[in-house]
Amino acid sequence: MSFEKCVRCGSCLKICPIFDAVGEEQYSPRGKTYVLQVMDLIEEDEELGKEFRRLLFQCTMCGRCKEICSSDVDLLEVWHDSRGRALKEAPKEFGYLDSLRDALANVQNIYGLDPEDRAIYWLDELRDIIPGIEDHVYEEGKTADVVVFLGCLMSFRYSQMDVLRSFFKSLERAEIDYLVMGSQEFCCGHPLHLMGDEEGADVLRKHNKKVIESTGADYVVTCCPGCLIQLSMHHSLEGVEALHHTQFFDRQYDSLPKYESEEDFAYHDPCELHRICDVKTEPRSLLAKMNVSYKEMELSCCGGGGLLRMTDPDLSDKIIRLRAASEHLRKYTVITACPSCREQLLGNNLETVDIVELMDAALEEGR
Ligand code: SF4
Ligand code: SF4
Question: Which domains does the chain show, CATH number per domain?
Answer without folding.
Answer: 2-89 (1.10.1060.10), 109-252 (3.40.50.1860), 265-362 (no CATH)
